[in-house]
Structures
1.
Amino acid sequence: MTSDISYLPEVPHVRHGSNIGQPLTRRDGELKVTGRATYAADNHPAGILYAALAVSSIARGRVASLDVAAAKAHPRVVEVMTPANRPPLADDPDAKTNPFMFRMELLQNDQVRYPGQSIAVVIAETLEAATEAAVLLAPRYEALPARVGLDAGESFTPTSVGVGNPATAHHGDVEAGLAAAARRIESTYETPAQYHNAMEPHCIVAAWDGDRLSIDMPSQGLIMGRARLAGLLGLPPGNIHIRSPFLGGGFGSKGFPIGPQVLGVLAAKLVGRPVKLVLTREQMYGPAGHRSATRQTLRIGIAADGALTAIDHHAKVASSTFDDFFEPAADSSHTLYASPAIATSHEAVRIDTGTPLFMRAPGEATGSIALESAIDEAAIACGMDPLAFRLKNYAEVEPISGKPFSSKALRECYAQGAERFGWSKRPLAARQMRDENGFLVGWGMGTATFPALMFAAEARAVLRSDGTGLMETGAHDMGQGAWTAFAQIAADSLGLDIGEVEFRAGSSDLPDAGIAGGSGHTATAGMAIHNAGADVIARLAELAMSNERSPLFGAGNAGVIARGGRLFRRDDEGRSESYADILSRAGLAQIEGSGNAAADPVAQETYAMHAHGAVFAEVKVDPDLGQIRVSRMVGAFAAGRVINPRLVRSQYYGGMIWGVSFALHEEAITDRRSGRIMNANLGEYHVPVNADIPSVEALLVEEHDPYVNALGIKGVGEVGITGSAGAVANAVWHATGIRPRRFPIRIEDLLTSPAA
Ligand code: MOS
């Protein structure tokens, strides 16, 4: 029953027990496809009221007036919450005591600092009444001119980028490397602001019971989110219960509670009834984070033999006027290519926007598209095949840190991906291939990399006298399949079949599973689960080995193996006993254990840990109309142990499709006069649909990493984006001879004559 699917015969995996490595379908799949999975906004506690958010239509200034009387007079409206009557907070929403704390607008004053900022909340018996009354507020503003775009004001060097990374880093002498180079490339790439656009909008259902608070809210970080709410509300964290069993995507934007969610809690407090607040799609373009636009300049020096002599990667990014998040775009040049000199630097400008945030592969997604385009350009300048050029300049140790890689199967990714794609047949020059319709055909590639991160997590394990097990940790399933992958790890850790293991997750009253972010959730919570299982098995073994009536009596140092609901003597598998027998003889209904996980600081200090991959793309370009279609993509990825090849492959598909989206579709367009986003909807903010993605293959390249963690797990959520956008852009060059410099690539960019 562990192999209910026989699909994907070439699955490379390392068997841990009988569950890890199996391509199981999602445990929650049936619930989801039958509509029985309860998402946060599906909850309707008795007496519920509906809140509608009123948001600013200006980018900067103050709210001069709101017609609260008109809104309150609307039938079925219960209350209007404004700065005048918003319940008090225990903490300043503009306080920032750690980099994971983002400032929010909680009606603390009449100031407007970006378009789409919350300015009032209308609470009514129906959503329709709340929505209508929010319009009746008819805000009047004192507006100041909007500051828009990367050239809006003074630029400065941020104190740090991403989370605490230095804004500048280097090794060697870049200027000397450039001066000594036989060839030099200098080019600038622009990427647009992008919004997370998870299918499920941010929302909250909040119900107070005295000083206890019950919340349904999609969360990628339950315990951290609970702590943030507890601080703002002045409650002990234990008084707050957050449920988040299913998320309709997050992509980084649900890592922290956002302002409107806190306003939902305050609205429920104000009216003394449960309140539901769901953002409209348009309202997600403001207080929920986004990816900053970037302008990146790469200078690359290449020796006569094609070896890099220098890489200089400079990125300009934007942040809000009131908070700090700086997209670490240039940091993507730290790890991939060896060069005697590398320098990365960032500068930033403050504009009238909601604060940018982590968005799928923050830094790597934006940075790698520029780096991979520039590397492609460098290869072509040397007359070298882009794959041969990458292999020549492949880093054996991480260039800037000087650390060896804990494992690196990138050569295998290049080889397997190239073979599957048929890369060896690629003509060196551009505009050499046409399809049967006369469309220009081009092949491009990109290298993928993303750090293998681990955070801290805990789990609790139970074995019961009926032979079943229970594993608990407050893990988050954004759609990636966490319910399933963690149950697989749990089952192996308990020596049971997955069908015998109950797995509980998605609730803040469970042990802290850390955050589902940075592609680190499987490694982090998975290791806590693994350790909790080992702990409960050790306790069970102790019970058996110390009892004369057990066949395991005295196994002692030889130890036992847990498998199929039994403990076996390691030195004599003929002697074994079932969990049920051990527990019933001891008169126990169950036995409990616990485990935790964190990155190993010694290993982290010693090794550079990354997932890797190589992505190959084919595009077809209409020579007259400039329309671009991706016709084929092959990615080969190595990310340590594969817990579930079906889910992992699906993550890679998602990353590759996001890469296509980055290269060809996504862009938030800001009106320069108003500062408002003009396409704040899924009709005009383009993402690929099925017709845009004809054939995508993801190969799982086997990799054993003995250092990253005991299970050898690296992350798979974000690495797939990083090579893919560059691969598409490079394929466009190969088809047309035109080097894309701004993203998404536009038809008009391809209607000029190709560069000589
Ligand atoms: Mo991600 S941007 O770490 O959810």
2.
Amino acid sequence: MEVIVLLGPDDVARVAADVVAGVVRRRPGAVLGLATGSSPVGVYAELARRVAAGELDLSGVSGFALDEYVGLPAGHPESYAAVLARDVTGPLGLDPARVHVPDGRAADLEAAAEDYEQAIAAAGGVDVQLLGIGANGHIGFNEPTSSFGSRTRLKTLAPRTRADNARFFASPDEVPMHCLTQGLGTILGARRLLLVAQGSAKAEAVAAAVEGPLTSMCPASALQLHPRATVVVDEAAAVRLTLLDHYRQVYAHKPAWQRP
Ligand code: GLP
């Protein structure tokens, strides 16, 4: 995979936004895979800035969220549907009718998961999937031991993920126990993967994903199976990578025609 190591979070946001913008420039009706969590916040902010400046038009794209909590009441501010509507759809000028989130309130969650897979397929698949990474190596909500072949389905959140996400809720008990998440197989079906990570808390997970063995104990190691995966990290998130100099050299000498 391509590993790009940059000075700080602002550089990560800029370079990741370049990739997304490049995809949309080539295909104005592109399908974007949308991640939530704090990792992509800077990328969205940079895209929103370019949209506001008239440099980029995202009004023709479709979006598919990676995951959604199960059982939060409609309109709960921390449901990923609400987070995306507030922080992504509006600021990026996306068409709300074309932004899709798994239905975590469905009476039949299995059917909702299947419907979601069908909706992604009907849209022609995801052109570029933006990803964060959990401290335990999860992507989407695919916790350790998730199958590399998994599709959208119900998952139980790992205690560490619930603890990590408790900061968004009034109390740790409020963090849902379950979620619907695209599977690793679903994610690998995207034509391009773009994982961003910042900060030392992610250093171990990034190293395991990029340089560790292919193992469901680190779900993000599934990126090693993808023919077009790019990992953009800042210095702090890169400290555990052993081939740091190699990644820097590759990026410094990246041919112009390969750049977004
Ligand atoms: C969350 C999300 C993931 C996200 C990850 C890391 O719970 N479900 O999509 O990438 O965990 O979160 P953060 O970016 O806030 O560190």
